[in-house]
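FIELD: query
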Amino acid sequence: MERNVLSAFIQASEKAANIARACRQNAHLFELLVQEKVDDEKNPRFVHDFKTLADVLIQETIKHDIGEQFPELAQHIKGEESNKFQNTLGESITVEVKADKDSTAALLSKVLNGDTVAAGLLADEVHKVVPLEDVNLANSTLPHKVELPVEHLGVWIDPIDATSEYIRGKETPSTINGLYCGGLQCVTVLLGVFDRSSGCPVMGVVNQPFFIHDDDRWIGRCMWGISHNDTNVNCIPKPDLSPKEKVVLVGSGESEELREKLRASGAVVVRGVAGAGHKLVGVALGLADAYVLTRPTTFLWDTCGPHALLLSQGGGVASCANPGTQLTYSGSVGTCNEGGIVAYRDRTFLEALLDRELQESVLPLDPQASGDPQASGDPPQ
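FIELD: result
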């Protein structure tokens, strides 16, 4: 295959990161981009939840760019957000990328109540060409040739994971074991590619738009991994195998009883780290050994991309209710990881960690958590 699927997804993720950064750069612009979610779109955690035009625009830009390069994928690219937006005049507008910059700007101007300056700035980012050499790949080298069966693949997009941290827009210097407790550093763009027949993740690209704050500007970082047939490659450095304490991340809503069970296994339990994508990447990077979430508050778009990274390392993401089985993926919108999740790099550690008691800690499915096809992915994670 002459077309490089991995490069295309990396470039799409960087364009997404550019849009996210542009929207945070101007306070007036960002104020225009936030709109309260309607009742049937609310996330179970919050009375007030928000979606942003940045979310929707990033999602639709990725769909457009990938679909244009790989037409056989176009109908199989799914995203977290609805692309319907309502302006202050009550007009319902479908956000999409048009054929040229001026047409996209004209559409966005309707969403932005006639603010042509803001619309033009966003359209510039949407139609900008992002060279691969402009992406911070942390000095990793992309594989020259990886054959992926594009015609059999599906895609999940989480355009802005940790949306609430993005909206608050703060820089939070405090870290736990190298992971940020909150703030823009926890925000991730998650792209996951899966085989539509088997449901197995085959490629993941994770972009952190706000990785480093340098001279009043943000610099991002992009990570990738491929796990397909006998090919397992990624950009993650080899882990430090020297003996050390095992660290398990848990969601903020987990019970003290569960945390005690994990401590009894010999692990150091860490809570208070924001963002499901951020925590999953923390496991992939070796900043934690596992991430346990017993609640049904993540969705396919949250886990698909990071799952592929972990598979490429010999790890994975399983269900807490059935830790011997990897999560699988489909194109069903709104599908919740009902049995919770446990992410890990080392299968041996997973086996030592999980027992019958832990499986019994999985909470029953909350219909409100799984019935929302457009939930923002920001419940207790």
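FIELD: remark
The mean pLDDT is 86.
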